[in-house]
């Protein structure tokens, strides 16, 4: 009886621990400003000497009130990231954000954030947004919504999602908050067709059930990054 009790307790603690470490770890001190010059490599960044920390370590003149250029983007969007690479004081704090500008009919194409949930707030314009669930017996379910100024939508961690401006003559702007200091982004088309070296066209032709010539054409396109 005691053995089974200990087993259940151990299983419960393991499950609890897995939930605790499912996102960025909690800080163990007031702050841990990233030391970009340290040669030590850890999960995150080594802490800068607290005596050398100043207010600028927590500041960035990001100009997020200024419109970004979307004209040079093939997908018609510009994502301005503010993460631990931009503000070293974000290290261990488990949060970041991004301003996203959309040209008329522009989109932030299907992508995932492997380390973060995203909450999106529309600042100007209209957006058609959605995400797709992971594989189930009933397939992959799509959740979509049309958002207007002031509306908020959540994209669960790791799931493929997108935003599209359906208006042909007006831009849109949104602000996204993410539950990681460095959420990462995998743009699906870029990763599949623009990897270096390229994924075998035999593999992709089988996966997408198309001719290899179609895959070769897709891999020959210029797959740009709209995240800056």
Structure description:
- Mn(2+) binds at residues 111, 113, 118, 161.
- Oxalate binds at residues 108, 113, 118.
- Residues 62-216 form the Cupin type-1 domain.
- With 228 residues, this protein is α+β, with helices and mostly antiparallel strands.
- The protein has 2 domains: 22-184, Jelly Rolls (Sandwich), CATH 2.60.120.10; 187-227, no CATH class.
- It is built from 4 helices and 10 strands.
- Strands 1-2-9-4-7 form a 5-stranded antiparallel β-sheet, with no helix packed on it. A 5-stranded antiparallel β-sheet has the order 6-5-8-3-10.
Rg over CA atoms, rounded to whole Å, is 21 Å
Going by CATH, the architecture of the largest domain would be: Sandwich
Mean pLDDT: 91
Strand order of the largest sheet: 1-2-9-4-7
Name of the top-level CATH class of the largest domain: Mainly Beta
Structural category is alpha+beta
Tell me the count of domains: 2
Report the major sheet. Answer: 5 strands, antiparallel
User: Any idea what the CATH superfamily of the largest domain is called?
Assistant: Jelly Rolls
Helical proportion, percent range:
10-25%
Give the CA-CA distance, first to last residue.
58 Å
Which labels suit this protein?
single chain, secreted, 10 strands, five-stranded antiparallel sheet, apoplast, alpha+beta
Concise synopsis of the structure shown:
The chain has 228 residues and is of the alpha+beta class. It is built from four helices and ten strands, in the order H-E-E-E-E-E-E-E-E-E-E-H-H-H.
